[in-house]
Design brief:
single chain, 2% strand, 2 strands, 26 helices, mainly alpha, two-stranded antiparallel ribbon
Length: 524
């Protein structure tokens, strides 16, 4: 196609040199034969070849003047048909003159391709007005093919529109390769759609070279932390050298080289990477000033990574001061935090203050180790559950002093689910035919699993030694020791049976417990 440019000279004579033509000067047309013009003293038509962006066919034969004018009119009509206003169409052609040199049929084909990936005419109108290169760039064609198959089908239309709107067409090259690299490094095929739909695709993928992308994934894989991308896709937004390396490096130093531990902490809380090195350092310095070693600090971080998001002044400092007021030394505070680290992060007004009030009301004394241990256990349950547990014990005849005495022996009873507690207490009374008062001497009974531990052991032992057995010996002995004890008792029963003349049916009946025991043991 030839672009005709009107050039004005002071002299009416034809110059013997090529005039300095303004780049991309274009006169738009409202029909195939009518051009807008400017009133100039003297004008010359000067045909020249336009320098275009890449991937655009350049045509400069003068014999195609009429065809070019016709195609320009068709292109103008095509843009108008997509909802682009006349003024916007003129601006598009001025900004991207190479667009007029591409056969209209190829542009129509590109428009059909864009529609096939879910973009409607309204979206296309917005995108073309902002970035008309999507109609001609080769990379866009490759990207459309990717979106029609495989992982590309999982990307939502709104994400595609955002990507086209904010990304240069040339940066779409290699998009499919980077997605395949994500899967190869360990992001599951089930999660890849979630990842791609929850990141800024331009920032996370397009603005990185393939080499830089692989380098970042390789670094994360050292810590077995590729999984954090599926948990928190925005991890892909971080720069390797300025974000990931310094922050993970701080955790590596704090752990004294425990790479597996760092990976575990990252997988527990991927959001820990959102904090700057200065923020992480500030928290570590606070714990050091409280008497903790780096290994102890990292142990707390590993168990409760959210500790790095807790305000030092509003929560950490007051909580540690409270524990010390209760009489705990540094070692005891550390052991307390290992068991109940969530204590550091709970709201005082909406959580801890209510629990402290309930504990003091049933008889705990303020600023005592017993209260500290009780609030540690209570911090692992909800306020309403703690209230229901206390009410449940009272309904079974226990006094407040009894509840305090039991929890001092076994603090965990304050954190158990009230429904589970009631089932165990009912089984103790109804099936085992025991007194509820036995819980005063062995409250740990309420911590064992009802089906797999309490019922299983009671039913097996009852058939051999009867119902009169110690709850402590029945449940607290290890599984290995319990199995050995059962085998010894069963051998004794077997020897006694050999000495007696017993009918076959009676023999089968008495040996049934042994068969059941062997079956269960084999299942284990």
């Amino acid at each position: 196609m030839i672009t005709f440019v009107k050039c004005t000279f002071n002299s009416p004579q034809i110059p013997s040199f090529s005039p300095q033509i303004p780049p991309y000067t274009l006169y738009t047309c409202s029909s195939a034969i009518k051009f807008t013009t400017l009133h100039l003293k003297t004008a010359f038509l000067w045909p020249f070849k336009v320098k275009h962006p890449r991937n655009v066919l350049i045509m400069s034969k003068s014999t195609r003047v009429i065809d070019d004018v016709s195609e320009t009119g068709e292109l103008f009509s095509l843009l108008r048909g997509l909802g682009v206003t006349e003024k916007e169409a003129e601006v598009i052609l001025v900004r991207n003159p190479g667009l007029g040199l591409v056969p209209v049929e190829l542009i129509r084909k590109r428009v059909r391709g864009l529609k096939s990936i879910g973009l409607d005419e309204v979206a296309l109108s917005r995108l073309i007005s902002k970035n008309s290169e999507i109609l001609t760039a080769e990379e866009v064609g490759c990207f459309i093919k990717f979106l029609r198959s495989g992982y590309g089908k999982k990307i939502e239309t709104i994400q595609i529109e955002r990507l086209f709107r904010g990304t240069e067409a040339r940066l779409l090259g290699g998009f499919d390769e980077k997605v395949r690299v994500l899967v190869e490094f360990g992001v599951s095929e089930e999660k890849i759609g979630y990842v791609l739909n929850n990141v800024n695709l331009s920032k996370a993928i397009c603005l990185r070279s393939s080499e830089e992308f692989k380098r970042m994934l390789t670094f994360l894989s050292r810590y077995n932390a590729i999984g954090i991308i599926a948990k928190r896709p925005s991890t892909l937004h971080y720069d390797l050298d300025t974000h990931l390396v310094p922050r993970i490096g701080f955790l590596q130093r704090l752990s004294e080289g425990n790479t597996d531990g760092v990976g575990e902490a990252l997988n527990r809380l991927p959001a820990i990477l959102t904090y700057s090195v200065e923020h992480l350092q500030n928290h570590a310095e606070f714990f050091r000033s409280s008497g903790f070693t780096d290994q102890e600090i990292f142990k707390i971080v590993l168990i409760f990574p959210n500790v790095m998001s807790v305000s030092v002044e509003r929560k950490l400092r007051p909580r540690l001061e409270f524990l010390k007021e209760c009489g705990l030394d540094t070692g005891e505070v550390y052991r307390f935090l290992v068991k109940s680290p969530v204590f550091l992060g709970l709201s005082f007004e909406r959580n801890l203050s209510l629990k402290l009030a309930m504990l003091v009301k049933i008889g705990y004394v303020y600023r005592t180790k017993e209260l500290a241990m009780a609030i540690g256990a209570a911090s692992r349950t909800r306020c309403e559950y703690l209230q229901q547990v206390i009410s449940l014990f009272l309904s079974y005849g226990f006094s407040c002093d009894d509840i305090v005495a039991m929890s001092n022996k076994h603090f965990q009873i304050l954190q158990y689910n009230p429904k589970s507690l009631e089932e165990k207490m009912e089984y103790l009374i109804e099936e085992m035919d025991r007194e509820i008062g036995e819980l005063l001497s062995f409250p740990a009974f309420l911590g064992y699993n009802l089906d797999n531990r309490i019922k299983h052991r009671y039913e097996l032992k009852k058939k051999i030694v009867g119902e009169d057995m110690s709850l402590n010996k029945l449940l607290s002995v290890s599984s290995e020791k319990f199995s050995k004890t059962k085998k010894k008792l069963l051998v004794q029963v077997s020897s006694e049976l050999d000495e007696k003349d017993i009918e076959t049916d009676e023999l089968v009946r008495m040996w049934r417990p042994f068969c059941v025991f062997k079956y269960i043991k084999n299942c284990e």
